[in-house]
Amino acid sequence: MASLIDGKQISQDIKDELREKVRKYKESGKEIALAVIQVGNDPASSVYVNNKKKACEYIGIKSVAFELPEETQQDELLKLIDELNADQGIQGILVQLPLPKHMNENLIINRINPLKDVDGFHPGNVGALCIGQPGFVSCTPAGIIELLKRSGNEVVGKECVVVGRSNIVGKPMALLLLAENATVTIAHSKTRDLKEVCKRADILIAAVGKPKMFNRDYIKEGAVVIDVGIHRMENGKLCGDVDFEDVLDKCSAITPVPGGVGPMTIAMLMNNCVESLKLQRME
């Protein structure tokens, strides 16, 4: 039977460590502020933004909210970002995605100063990750690395398969695993013999966005399985990209959904906010 990798507990440990760091920064007169911009009132986005505000409050980071109406013009949003880039009292800027259809997400992300891009989406930060330079790292992949390390699942020398090639998870995940000295395969919807590729994995990262796609036929005996997906089923329960019950007795460790990768994303966002002091040479 697989051991559960408890993302709730590990994320709480990280937030407690960050809380202590922030307390010490405040004692030396250094404050960290995160600007969170939400355009429109998408219900899922509102939940995420609220969770980020709660995490900021817990850790001691100042959260500055900008809740803009759906019909806000792109130029108005760009002007706000420019103002926040210039504001020395703001260390991090986060634009909640998705944006309304009349806005160009790439243009918006590229406008954020890379040194304030705590989501780690700016091409400057992605490029830094590629060549091993300091910069912000996308929060979900960074959280997965912490999950593996803190749960005692060694990465060095392991064969890792990442299924999914998104800019937010798949690609940075592969780069982070390479940096940890793993052997990495990126698989996707066009991969031939996907089951056979997955069955090579000592560590399988499932990030395709299809509920319960990965059953025991995809899993190597004793593999570590990290499930990035989250979906709401017809009965109202949540599930991931992995068929949890079907693979439980075949893998050695697995992240549950919910309570696995999800909590780590916000914990690592908070970590990026604290790291902003170093990147901005304010520490």
Give a description of the structure:
This protein is an alpha/beta fold and 283 residues long. It folds into two domains: 85 residues, Leucine Dehydrogenase, chain A, domain 1 (Rossmann fold, 3-Layer(aba) Sandwich); 124 residues, Rossmann fold (3-Layer(aba) Sandwich), CATH 3.40.50. The chain is built from ten helices and eleven strands. The protein has a six-stranded parallel sheet. The protein has a three-stranded parallel sheet with strand order 3-2-4, with helices on both faces. A two-stranded antiparallel ribbon has the order 9-10. Strand 9 and strand 10 form a beta hairpin. Helix 2 packs across helix 10, helix 6 packs across helix 7 and helix 6 packs across helix 10.
Name its key features:
283 residues; Rossmann fold; 6-stranded parallel sheet; 3-stranded parallel sheet; 10 helices; 11 strands; globular
What's the number of domains? 2
* Head-to-tail CA distance between termini: 45 Å
Q: Write out the CATH superfamily name of the largest domain.
A: NAD(P)-binding Rossmann-like Domain
Q: Can you count the helices?
A: 10
Structural class given helices, strands, pairing?
Answer: alpha/beta
* CATH architecture annotation name of the largest domain: 3-Layer(aba) Sandwich
The spatial strand order of the largest sheet comes to: 1-11-8-7-5-6
Shape: globular
Helix content: 40-55%
Give the rounded overall mean pLDDT: 96
Runs with pLDDT <50, length 5+?
Answer: none
Q: Which fold does the CATH topology of the largest domain refer to?
A: Rossmann fold
Bin the strand percentage: 15-25%
Main sheet record:
6 strands, parallel
Q: Based on DSSP secondary structure assignment, what is the total number of beta strands?
A: 11
H and E string: EHEHEHEHHHEHEHEEEEHEH
- Tell me the Rg in angstroms: 19 Å
Reading off the top of the CATH hierarchy, the class of the largest domain is best stated as Alpha Beta
